[in-house]
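Entry 14. Structure prediction run on the chain below.
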Amino acid sequence: MIEIDISTDNPVDYYDNWYKPGTEWEKLSINWCKLPDYYSFDLEKLRTELENVRSKYDFQPFVISKSGKKRMTYQAISLTSRENSEDPEYDGLRLFGFDDNEKEVELDIQSVFLKYYNNPAGADNAPTLNEKIFTKQTDACMGYFQEVINKFHSPKTKCRLLNLKPRGVISPHVDFPYYRQIRVHAAIYTNEDTYYEVEGVKFKIPADGNFYWFDVGRNHAVANNGTADRITLSVNLSVYDNYDSSHNLMDLINECKI
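Output returned:
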């Protein structure tokens, strides 16, 4: 089988202004890490809870364009939604940001990603994402999922179950700097041929009952080269709602304070 090339080592410098000297925030020195055992969970129990969720809400594909085009290899169930969402269990399949007037707008996912494809070295017009609006737990956030997510002390926002199907790829892109939000992942099911990449560095997230953080404020991508689904629990955390720039993220992670 030919491995999918996700090429996150292409020059990307437009997000350097998120860090010093343009801001008070240091650029992080590492791309990813396993979280301490404090955040670990019973994998088989989580898998059982996943089946409970799927008996009521199964995965639906992302709709990536205003024309209704669906991305069948990438699917989700939302564990949190926006207030008053009409379809809360699938609200997290939508992408929101701000326009030039700082007004909240829904984004066309395909258009956003095309900006990275067409001009990866200077996608200055890539929108600022707004994921802090996903604060209401949905009915899909059942028992053990709720217990696992509540291990985190920081405000929780967009939480989803994400299914990247065989030969599926999440193309190179950038989301937001760590001081706005961080994202942690726990693999519920995966395979040996699924890998992540951040700025050209490949790594794997095993289904081992642990959470892993990686820096979505750098150019990153995911590819499933295997024959089985990759299903993860993805949690966004607003860590720096509680801390200022004098607190290093790696210290907060190691001290179990996120």
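The longest strand covers residues 70-78.
Filed with the rest of this week's runs.
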